[in-house]
Each structure stands twice: as structure tokens, then as C-alpha cells.
Amino acid sequence: MSCSPLPMMTPPSGLAGRTAAPADDDRLTRLAMVARDGRPDDVEAFVRAVYGDVRRFAAYLAGIPAAEDLTQETFLRVLGSLPGFAGRSSARTWLLSIVRRVVVDRFRAAAVRPVVAELPDWQAAAERCQPRDVPGPEEGVALADLLLQLPFERREAFVLTQVSRLSYAEAAELIGCPVGTVRSRVARARGQLVEALLAADQAA
User: Is the distance from CB of 36 to CB of 161 less than 8 angstroms?
Assistant: First the structure.
């Protein structure tokens, strides 16, 4: 299959929303296997099914302003690699590994560390992060802002396990480090996020 342009679609609004649950993995993998032959309708069905997860993951790793560009670059790589997808891992895990490589490559190309976003209004961020009955786009924006305060390694481990719902073993395999290291990074990330929210309460 040639690397054709992405199917025309309207990107999901905001970043909040349901991340694909493990129960969806089989369906996404089946869509990927069907799309390997390159039929436009099958490719578009697969891209539509996974677009939101890919964009959210890119935003949580690299920030919202860069998310759309990184998502498009990810899908260019996905379409080029799709014919070789053998289903040895779930399609979602395979996609997240590609997003991660795209983000890391972007950081390396820029020869800088991930930018730490300034968030002057911690109180507003904390309020937006409070659980609500119906999550809205602003909650995803607030979480992305808060995650950008973390070192990349902690952010990556936290997003993979707590947002994208990979197991610690799956995240460790994707990152290429021991499971214990992933657990440590997640624990430190969680602690740093809690400290940020406590700082917001004290500033109120």
C-alpha cells in the first residue's frame, strides 16, 4: 500500500473523552488487520477508530499546540507501516509505540528538552481537574497542562498506564525499561501532580 494522504475527517473536539478500554483492543486490532490491504474505506474506518486516542496521547506527551501536527505525522508512519502489522501486539499498543517514537524524534530533532509550560493560575487548573459527572474538553486541557510540569520519563509512564490504560508490563516493554522503573516513575509522577494540586489549594 502506498503512503496515501490521510482520510478526510473532523478531529474530535477537545482532549477529554473515553480512552479505548482493553475490551476495545480486539476490535481495533481486527480493524487494523483488515486495513492492511489498503482499501480506502477500511483504512478510513481504522483511522477514525483510533484518531482520538492518538491525538490525546500526543497532547499529553508533547502539549496541546503540537498535538495535531504530531498526530498527522504519526498517521503517515502508521499508513506506511500498516501492511506489515502482524497483530503480535494489539493495534492500540502498536499505535502508542509509533506516537512515542514520533514525539521522541521531534524532541531529538529540536535538540531540546520538552518545554515546561507555564501555568500561572494553578487554582483554575485544579478546579478544572476535579471529577465531574460529564467530562468536558477543558478537563483534558487542564490535565495536559499539569502533565507538562513532569519530566518526560515520568509523564510518559503516567500517561501510558493511567491514561491509556496499558499494564505496567506493557508500558515497560514499550518504553524499554524494567517494570519496577515504570512503577517508580508513575508513583513519582502521581506525587508531583498531587503536590501541584495542593499548591493550588494553598494559593486559593
Answer: no
CATH number of the domain within which 92 lies: 1.10.1740.10
Indicate whether this model's pTM tops 0.85.
no
Say if residue 32 is in the same domain as residue 90: yes
- Domain span at 133: 117-204
Assess whether 127 and 204 both reside in one domain.
Answer: yes
Reference 169, options 26, 160, 30; nearest CA is: 160
Going residue by residue through the chain (204 aa), what tens digit of pLDDT does each one get? Answer: 444 444 444 444 444 444 445 458 899 999 999 999 999 999 999 999 999 999 999 999 998 888 999 999 999 999 999 999 999 889 999 999 999 999 988 887 764 444 444 433 433 433 444 333 333 444 455 677 788 889 999 999 999 998 888 999 999 999 999 999 999 999 999 988 888 777 766 665
Instruction: Kindly report the CATH number assigned to the domain that includes residue 177.
Output: 1.10.10.10
**Cβ atoms of 98 and 77 closer than 8 Å:** yes
Residue 96 contacts by C-beta under 8 Å, 6 or more apart in sequence? 53, 57, 160, 164, 166, 174
At residue 183, φ and ψ (nearest 5 deg) are -60, -40
* Residue 136 falls inside a structural domain: yes
